[in-house]
# Entry
Amino acid sequence: MDFEFTKEQMEIKRAAREFAEKEFTSEKGREYDQNYQFPWEFYRKAGKLGFIGASLPEKYGGQGLGCIEACIVSEEFSRVDSTLAGILSGVGFAELVEKYGTDQQKQRYLPGIAKGETACAMALTEPKHGSDAGSTGLDTTAVKDGNDWKINGTKTFITCGDIAEFTIVCCQTDPNASPPHRGVSQIIVEKGNPGLDISQLKPKMGIRGSPQAELSFSDVRVPLSNLLGQENKGFHQIMSYFDFSRTPIAAGAVGMAQGAFERALKYSTEREQFFTPIHRFQFTQWKVAEMAMKIEAARLLTYRTAWFIDHKPGDTKEITKYASMAKAYAARTAIQVTDAAIQIYGGYGYVDSDLERYYRDARITDIIEGTGEIQRYIVARESYREMNLPLP
# Structure
């Protein structure tokens, strides 16, 4: 059992950390946070260095790397600055095109993503359908009309929805499907399409450098060839994709926790109470120990999941369970560690430090791409299934 990265992975880790520490400054992080702006300058720089779309195939401009390498980049970027690490949100859903797209779709959309020139999005969540989007069906519909799909409906909380050159829209294409998720398809809609109205969602608590938007579709027409993957198989495609995408999100949560931990550890040797540095107090040492143990446990769980994805891609049930375990545990760790770090800082953590950004940014990791409650349901379901017991 080897717990070490390969020589190549260590080089990626070093390069990612070096790039982030050189380019990501606290001043820039605060600027993009305050202005609700996507960090295009860093996105483009990271694209030129191969960090954007690292797991995309080389023939489309990517690096052809695996989930472990994607997690390494996510952790290192998030460790240095939780806001500027949001540049990785502009590329994530390109994996859906790589996995299910036609050759023409891949040629059209993936090179721009890999170079850091364009961003993409995926629209699943609706005002009335969040975590239950598959069980009750979608209100956004797509019907065939000649050579086109005609799309109507509303999507909300769509990450990068207002800056994406194209969005993969989840639509109900078979209203009579039972259960409803068997009638969901994914259709590519490009920015600027007539009938598509986009509005940015703000104010919001955190990840302000990674914008969220609401998308309204009013008789939006796109060619039938914009179908991604198989008709009425879109929900299965999404769930399969989530097994991969939740793991780098977990790595990002680990990175946020690590970054907050390092800052708090250093500050505990500088802050004095009762004429004594607080790191000499037992209550501080216990807090530090709890933070360190949780981070390491979350990291091991995350990279074990990434290893499964890279080395046993056919073991889908195992991957599904571990991806949910990793995301749920790492997200909760990020929230708890950033909270403890602020406590160590005291008032300055709340008012005049980067920790309040880490705290706000960490909170979303327990919500996006499946809430912590949904992840725990999945873990429980798979645990019952392994024992051949009735499913909950």
Summary: The domain at 235-386 is CATH 1.20.140.10 (Butyryl-CoA Dehydrogenase, subunit A; domain 3). The chain has a mean pLDDT of 93. The chain has three domains: 7-114, 120-232, 235-386. DSSP finds twelve helices and ten strands in the chain.
